[in-house]
Amino acid sequence: MRIERPKGTRDFLPDEMERRREIEKVMRQIAESYGYREISTPTFEHLELFTIKSGEGIVEEIYAFKDKGDRDLALRPELTAPVMRMFVNECSVMPRPLRFYYFSNCFRYENPQKGRYREFWQFGVELIGSGSYLADLEVILLAYRILKELGINFELNIGHVGLLRELLKDLSEERVRKIMRFIDKKDFESLERFLEENDLMDYYDDIKTLISMKGRKEVIENAREVLPDFDFGYIESVAMGLERLEVDFNLDFSIVRGLDYYTGVVFEIYAVEGLGAQNQICGGGSYRLTHLFGGGDVPSTGFAIGFDRVAEICSVKSEKAERIVVACTPGMELNALRIAENLREKGLVVYTDVMERGLKKQLSFANTVNARFAVIVAEREYEKGVVLVKDMESGEQREVPKSSILEYFGL
Fold this sequence. Notes:
Elements: H1 14-33, E1 37-38, E2 44-46, H2 48-54, E3 64-66, E4 72-75, H3 80-91, E5 98-107, E6 119-128, H4 133-149, E7 154-160, H5 161-167, H6 173-184, H7 188-197, H8 204-211, E8 214-215, H9 218-226, H10 233-244, E9 250-252, E10 262-271, E11 280-288, E12 299-306, H11 307-313, E13 323-328, H12 333-345, E14 349-352, H13 359-368, E15 373-377, H14 379-383, E16 386-391, E17 397-401, H15 405-408
Parallel strand pairs: 1-5, 7-9, 13-14, 13-15
Antiparallel strand pairs: 2-4, 3-4, 5-6, 6-12, 7-10, 8-9, 10-11, 11-12, 15-16, 16-17
């Protein structure tokens, strides 16, 4: 019986995995150059970890289940909440700020489509313990630097959820949450209908004006006309810092992010080409979550990069290590293995025959795996103290002393 993989999941063959590892390596190296250190959290958590911040409605969107002890658990749909849970439980007395990064798979129960899968990977960072604009500046700069290094053509948009919260401060939290969700999804028809049905059309013009603002620092002056009492100093500091650091960005006050825990600066990054409608590749901002999980009120800033979408459009190619096949005639297998081990210890990728095939088929296999050289261990030559090294591109073949095989390959 043939068993297919589950809907919304993928298999990755060696060439694709090598390429994904190269992309991952770039992300890790840059994050570590900023002082971030890797962490890991469980693949499944208590369901309450996600419902406590997102409500019971999220159960329909994730993989939730009961274990054999009748406990409610869920496969993680994202990493921020697990990291904050870990911080409260394990790290709350550590010196601040804490700089963490992660690379892990997540799971969401949604309709699979291009760029959206039920199992997907995220690369992200969390900077925990600073409420300064410099924290936002560092996190945005780090995301920007990673995507630039990967050769992606993208657009960085920055907003501030405090603007809309200030505009809607007289409404109930439930109504504010619904309005923000409509704006986050760009569902302006539903937004207008909701305002009309709830006798809130007095807010419509100001909301529409505010979320249509997009540009550089000059849009802050326009926003002041709508919200004269709002303190724009924080977002001005972030914008000025990004300009001084020569980061290309737009202010966009329609960006609110769909999660309720964001408190200040938020940002989204979109690929300019290659992904169609599902082109958001990064999102993040400043938030406060730890108080929900039994900790204090700790300011944090972070982002998550959609690794799968980045991998679709990234120009990074995997670096292929030079490959060598050590072939042999019958009876010389163990001698061939000894030579292969010596070469592997020096960092080369070396194949040996485990099928007990003839020499001709072993050399044919060398072509199949694109080996640069074949080292032939034949009984007559080996007794003379030499092996044959064949250049698989030119076909040239020469005798090399057994004792000098490492030197021949520059090792």
